[in-house]
Design goal:
The protein is α+β, with helices and mostly antiparallel strands and 684 residues long. It is built from 19 helices and 38 strands. GO terms for molecular function: ATP binding; biotin carboxylase activity; metal ion binding.
C-alpha cells in the first residue's frame, strides 16, 4: 500500500528517556511543536518537562502505558498531532500500531507496516534475504516449534547454537546453548522472556560463530525509490547480547568490504519496500565473510556515532522523509570524518552480574571544562537530570556518552577523559566497568568479537589492587567531604580531627567495598595528621610506616586536586555513603572509608539471608519447598527492566518457605524465601 505523505507541524514522541528528549530537540529546531506521553512512573521525567505538551497514558507498567496503542493514538488526537515518532523500543517495530495510525490519518515516522512485518518475523526475513542475495548464517527458521524438533535441528547444526526470539530484538529472548544437555532449559527461558517482551514465544536457531564481530550498516530509504548506506558501526562489545560500547567506522574495514556490506544492506532494505531509517546487522567472520543477522526497522540506540562521523542528523532525515521529501544526500555525497565511540551509561551493578539498580540520582553532571574537553568532542544524550528517580519499570539505560576524534586512538583517549568527567551519584552505574573496557589492551588493539567481555572476564573483573596514592587520596577526599557536611562553624562540631594546640589526628581505615564483611577486612589504615595555617590545612599521611605530605584543593563541581609529595592530580570525586569514588582518565577507584577513632555503624557483617537484589517481579518458582537442592541450583526467577534474573541456592539444603508467588512485585532487599542449609554446608 502506498502511503500519502503529509506535512505536519506537531510531532508526538511515543517513547521516553533519552531518545524522546533527542527527538524533541531536533523537532523543535525544525520548528515543530512537540508532545510527550508518559506513564505514572514518568510524570516528572525529563522528556515530559522538556515537551511543549504532555499527555498521561496510564499506570507504570508498559502494557498499560507506552504499549497501549489506543491511549497513544488518543493522545495524538487530543493534541492535534500530525505525526508520531516511535523512538526505539516499545511500539517502534509494531506493525499493528502503524496500521492503526494509517487508519487514524496520522503519519508514522518510520517504515510502512509491510516492511515491519517482513523483518519482524525473523524466520520469514531470512527467506526474503536469501532471495535478495544477502548471505545468511546456517540455521533453522521454520514454523514447526515442537520442542523435540527444535532440539533435533540444533543437533544437526552443531553446538554451540544461538536461540533467538523470532519476533524479538535488543537481546531479549536470546541464549547461547553450548551443548544438548542445556538446550531445554535455555529454550524454556527464552520462550518466557520472549512472551513477556513481545507476546510471541516462537524461536529460531542459528549456528553460533565462535569469534565473530557484530558490524551493522545504517541504511536510509525514501518514498522516491532512493536508498543509501551511511557506513557501518562495530557493536561487538556486548553483555547478555546487548551492546555496551559502539564505534564508527568499524576498525579494519577495507573500502571493498565496506562497499560490499553497504550494498547488501541497501538490497535488504529495498527487498521489503523500506522507507526511513533502518539498520541491517551482520556477523563479520575473521576471514572477511559476513552474514545477515537481522534488520532493525527503526532508529538504533547507537545512531549518534554515525551522525558524528558523517555530520548528518538522522532524526532530521527521518522527519523529512516522513514529510515526503527525498533523501538529503546521495551515496556519493556521504563521507567519513574521524572516529566516534558511544558508551551506554546504565543504572546497573556489573560487580553483581549487571543487576539493574534503582534510586534517586542526587547528581548527574558532565564537567567538560574541567576535563579540558570541548562540545565538539563530547556529546551526552541523556533522559535524566540531577534529582530524577530511576524506577524498576523500564530499561536501565540513563544516557549515552558519545565522543569524536580525528582517529580511533584519539577518540578512545577522549572517551576515557569524558567518562572520568561524568559525575553520577545516588545510583550505581556501569561507569567503572566502561572505563575498564575502554582502557583494556585488547580493546585498544582491536581484538574484538561478540564474546570480548566473556573472554576477558578474568581481567575485567579481577580483584582490585590499590596503590599508596589511591589510599592516601581516598583518605583525604572522604575527610574533606565529611567536613563539608558540617553546617556549623564551631570547632567542636568539626570532623577534621581538630585539637586545641595540637595537630589534628585522625585514623582512617580503607578497603575494597566488596570485602566489607568484618573488622579484619581493612586493607590499609591511614594515620592523618594536619596543621591548619592561614585557612589551609597541610597533612602528613602515614600508611604502612611510610609518610607522605599532602594537600587537597576543591575545584569546580565535585572535582578536587590532591597533591601528594609534590605530585598534583585532578580527580572527579564524591562520597556515596561510606564509599569514596574517585575517577580520572586512567579509571575509577572505589574504596570503603571509615574512621576507626569514632563510632561507625556502617562496617558490619554481610547479610546471610537470600534477599531480592533489585526491585522486580517474580516470574517463576522453580523448586518445591522441602525438596533437597544443591548449592547453585536455580530456585526462582525474577524479572526487572525487561531482563530475567535467576536466584540460586546459597548452599546445599532446601527451601522452607517462599514469601512471594509468580506475578508478585518485590522491592530490593525483601526476603524472598526461608532457606535451610544442611548442617555440613553450614559448618564449612
Amino acid at each position: 500500500m502506498t502511503l500519502t505523505p503529509t506535512k505536519f507541524d506537531t510531532l508526538l514522541v511515543a517513547n521516553r528517556g533519552e531518545i524522546a528528549c533527542r527527538v524533541m530537540r531536533t523537532a523543535r529546531r525544525m520548528g515543530l511543536k512537540t508532545v510527550a506521553v508518559y506513564s505514572d512512573a514518568d510524570a516528572s521525567a525529563r522528556h515530559v518537562r522538556e515537551a511543549d505538551e504532555a499527555v498521561r497514558l496510564g499506570p507504570a507498567t508498559s502494557r498499560e502505558s507506552y504499549l497501549n496503542i489506543e491511549a497513544v493514538i488518543d493522545a495524538a488526537q487530543r493534541t492535534g498531532t500530525g505525526a508520531i515518532h516511535p523512538g526505539y523500543g516499545f511500539l517502534s517495530e509494531n506493525g499493528s500500531f502503524v496500521k492503526a495510525l494509517e487508519e487514524a490519518g496520522i503519519t508514522f515516522v518510520g517504515p510502512p507496516a509491510s516492511a515491519i512485518a517482513a523483518m519482524g518475523d525473523k524466520s520469514a526475513a531470512k527467506a526474503r534475504m536469501a532471495n535478495a542475495g544477502v548471505p545468511l548464517v546456517p540455521g533453522y527458521h521454520g514454523d514447526d516449534q515442537d520442542d523435540a524438533l527444535l532440539r533435533s535441528e540444533a543437533d544437526k547444526i552443531g553446538y554451540p547454537v544461538m536461540l533467538k526470539a523470532s519476533a524479538g530484538g535488543g537481546g531479549k529472548g536470546m541464549r547461547v546453548v553450548e551443548s544438548g544437555d542445556g538446550f531445554q532449559a535455555a529454550l524454556d527461558g527464552c520462550r518466557r522472556e520472549s512472551k513477556a517482551a513481545f507476546g510471541d514465544d516462537r524461536m529460531l536457531i542459528e549456528k553460533y560463530l565462535v569469534q565473530p564481530r557484530h558490524v551493522e550498516v545504517q541504511v536510509f530509504c525514501d518514498r522516491h525509490g532512493n536508498g543509501v548506506y551511511l557506513f557501518e558501526r562495530d557493536c561487538s562489545v556486548q553483555r547478555r547480547h546487548q551492546k555496551v560500547l559502539e564505534e564508527a567506522p568499524a576498525p579494519g574495514m577495507t573500502a571493498e568490504l565496506r562497499g560490499n556490506m553497504g550494498d547488501a544492506a541497501v538490497r535488504a532494505a529495498q527487498e521489503i519496500g523500506y522507507v526511513g531509517a533502518g539498520t541491517v546487522e551482520f556477523l563479520l567472520d575473521a576471514d572477511g565473510s559476513f552474514y545477515f543477522m537481522e534488520m532493525n526497522t527503526r532508529l538504533q540506540v547507537e545512531h549518534p556515532v554515525t551522525e558524528i562521523i558523517t555530520g548528518q542528523d538522522l532524526v532530521e532525515w527521518q522527519l523529512r522523509v516522513a514529510m515526503g521529501e527525498p533523501l538529503p544526500c546521495s551515496q556519493d555525497e556521504l563521507t567519513i570524518t574521524g572516529h566516534s565511540f558511544e558508551a551506554r551509561i546504565y543504572a546497573e551493578d556489573p560487580e553483581q552480574d549487571f543487576l539493574p539498580a534503582t534510586g534517586l540520582l542526587t547528581r548527574f553532571a558532565l564537567d567538560l571544562e574541567g576535563a579540558g574537553l570541548g562540545a565538539d568532542q563530547v556529546r551526552l544524550d541523556s533522559g535524566v537530570e540531577s534529582g530524577d528517580a530511576v524506577s524498576m519499570h523500564y530499561d536501565p539505560m540513563l544516557a549515552k556518552l558519545i565522543v569524536h576524534g580525528p582517529d580511533r586512538d584519539a577518540a578512545l583517549a577522549t572517551l576515557n577523559r569524558a567518562l572520568a568527567a561524568l559525575d553520577v551519584q545516588g545510583v550505581v552505574t556501569n561507569r567503572a566497568f566502561l572505563m575498564r573496557l575502554a582502557t583494556h589492551p585488547g580493546f585498544k588493539n582491536v581484538e574484538l568479537d561478540t564474546r570480548f567481555i566473556e573472554r576477558n572476564e578474568a581481567t575485567l573483573f579481577a580483584p582490585r589492587t590499590y596503590s599508596m596514592e589511591a589510599y592516601a587520596s581516598a583518605a583525604l577526599i572522604g575527610l574533606h567531604q565529611l567536613a563539608q557536611e558540617c553546617e556549623s562553624d564551631s570547632p567542636w562540631d568539626r570532623h577534621d580531627g581538630f585539637r586545641l594546640n595540637a595537630p589534628h589526628t585522625i585514623r582512617i581505615a580503607l578497603c575494597d567495598p566488596a570485602s566489607v564483611k568484618a573488622a579484619d577486612s581493612d586493607d590499609a589504615v591511614v594515620i592523618v595528621e594536619g596543621k591548619r595555617s592561614a585557612g589551609e590545612t597541610q597533612w602528613n599521611l602515614t600508611i604502612n610506616d611510610k609518610t607522605l605530605t599532602a594537600s587537597l584543593q576543591p575545584l569546580t563541581g565535585d572535582a578536587v586536586a590532591v597533591t601528594l609529595n609534590g605530585h598534583r592530580r585532578r580527580l572527579q570525586a564524591n562520597r556515596d555513603g561510606h564509599v569514596v569514588v574517585m575517577a580520572d582518565p586512567s579509571g575509577e577507584t572505589r574504596l570503603f572509608w571509615r574512621r576507626i577513632d569514632a563510632i561507625d555503624h556502617g562496617h558490619h557483617e554481610a547479610e546471610s539471608t537470600l534477599t531480592a537484589p533489585m526491585n522486580g517481579t517474580v516470574v517463576a518458582l522453580l523448586v518445591e519447598p522441602g525438596v533437597a537442592v544443591e548449592k547453585g541450583m536455580p530456585l526462582m526467577v525474577m524479572e526487572a527492566m525487561k531482563m530475567e534474573h535467576t536466584m540460586t541456592a546459597p548452599a546445599d539444603g532446601s527451601v522452607d518457605t517462599f514469601h512471594f508467588q509468580a506475578g508478585d512485585t518485590v522491592n530490593q532487599g525483601a526476603v524472598l524465601l526461608d532457606f535451610a542449609a544442611n548442617d555440613s554446608a553450614t559448618n564449612q
